[in-house]
Specification:
The protein has about 260 residues and is of the alpha/beta class. About 40% of the residues lie in helices and about 20% in strands.
Length: about 260
């Protein structure tokens, strides 16, 4: 069996692309082939077999027409914009094989479009082009039922598996030392973007330290706000209690999650 997945491909790391990589790993273990088309810009492109990084919408459509797959699995998250709807339409129109859609955004049901979901809408017609819908929670499943998709074609599957960190992965000395020196050691992992309100976390550390003077916060991730966040941390009298670690390899991040207090 050949499965073609479409979605963000790391780096940077994120929840959706970790799900894509996990699916790819399990398919390959079972002896199947799994190709990937990256639908967002990767910060670093390393040549990999069956991993494609199209430079335009036309290149993406060409790949959809050329790749002979049994299943096409599109992963989307965040706000479902017109661009993402066009991508979903292209998968259903030009892709070869059974169409599957995974919707990762827990916030979509609360958006204006999610609340207004109707069968005879443009979105409903596009989403009904998929044979199966995978929702990461029951609320998303309810939205797609309102789009006119049969309940038997909607599956609630949580996008994670429980695995302990790989003991062979070595955590960099500066990160290990920061956790050892700060109790409690707190960790936040995500994109360095406005949606995550990281400046609030930096400001809140002042109140945390009033009660827990040895506390520390590690911020893992990359994004457009990295420079501003570093400036904000540097301006704090408690700057030594906050470590902006930037992009951290996934295996190391799992260790940090395991080793942190919160």
């Amino acid at each position: 069996m050949h499965v073609l997945q479409l979605g963000p491909y790391p780096p940077p790391e994120g929840g959706i692309n970790r799900n894509i990589l996990a699916i790819r790993e399990e398919l390959q273990k079972a002896g199947h082939r799994c190709s990937v088309i990256a639908t967002s810009r990767s910060t670093r492109i390393t040549p990999e077999t069956d991993v494609h990084h199209p430079g335009s919408a036309l290149e993406l459509i060409k790949l959809l027409r050329l790749i002979d797959s049994d299943v096409i699995h599109l992963h989307i998250g965040g706000d479902i914009t017109k661009r993402i709807l066009a991508l979903a339409w292209a998968c259903c129109t030009f892709g070869r094989g059974i169409k599957v859609l995974s919707v990762h955004s827990g916030g979509y049901p609360s958006t204006r479009e999610g609340k207004a979901a109707k069968r005879n809408s443009l979105r409903g017609r596009i989403f009904r082009g998929f044979k199966r819908i995978v929702a990461v929670n029951p609320t998303i499943a309810d939205v797609f039922a309102r789009y006119g998709i049969s309940r038997e074609h909607i599956h609630v599957i949580y996008p994670f598996v429980h695995r302990l960190p790989d003991p062979k992965v070595v955590v960099p000395a500066d990160l290990k030392e920061f956790i050892a020196k700060h109790q409690p050691a707190m960790l936040t992992v995500g994109l360095l973007e406005p949606e995550y309100d990281l400046f609030m976390q930096i400001d809140a550390m002042g109140k945390v330290l009033a009660d827990l003077p040895n506390a520390g916060l590690i911020i893992v991730g990359s994004g457009s706000l990295e420079g501003e966040l570093r400036t904000a941390i540097e301006a704090k009298p408690y700057k030594d209690h906050i470590l902006l670690a930037g992009d951290v390899e996934h295996g190391v991040t799992l260790h940090l999650i395991n080793d942190s207090d919160a």
